[in-house]
Amino acid sequence: MAITPDQIAYILTMVEGDHAANDEVEARLDRDGWDGFDVLLGAVFYSAVNRSFPRGANAGEIIRFVADMRSTMTGGPETDPGSAERLVSAALDPRLRTDVEPTSTGRIQGLTILYALGEGAVSSDELNAILTEAATLADRITECL
């Protein structure tokens, strides 16, 4: 299962805040299928977290990152801080295991992507490069599944 252009467009329009275009892409994905999207979302999340902490982070820095994300993002207050902190920590250290439910994982990943890459945090060129790299990684992973 290959990552599709619509899956990439879904994340792009989400980060850019283009709600109308995002709804259109979502409708196409609902029709055509979301297979592999979770892998793409995870790869973009990994890139967003590692871009936010290029030298790694200690527990206090991760706690502050999650607290700021939860306090400034729509849907943030409903996000479990412990789960978000564990996912961010695991993105920085893949040896760590998490016990976060899959439904919560996707929500936390999406929120983190919006927080780390949205609202002008990266240029369009940077965002496209991140998504291209993440899609390439996700394609490699899905080939192994």
Model description:
- The termini are close together.
- By secondary structure, the protein is mainly α.
- It has helices at 5-16, 19-32, 37-52, 59-72, 81-92, 102-117, 124-144.
- It is globular, with a radius of gyration of 15 Å.
- The mean pLDDT is 96.
How many separate domains make up the residues?
Answer: 1
Percent range for β-strand residues: under 5%
Shape: globular
Can you write the helix and strand succession as a string?
HHHHHHH
The number of distinct β-strands equals 0
Supply Rg.
Answer: 15 Å
Number of helices in the DSSP assignment: 7
Tell me roughly what share of residues is in helical segments: over 70%
Q: Topology, please?
A:
Elements: H1 5-16, H2 19-32, H3 37-52, H4 59-72, H5 81-92, H6 102-117, H7 124-144
Descriptors:
single chain; 145 residues; mainly alpha; 7 helices; 72% helix; 0% strand; globular
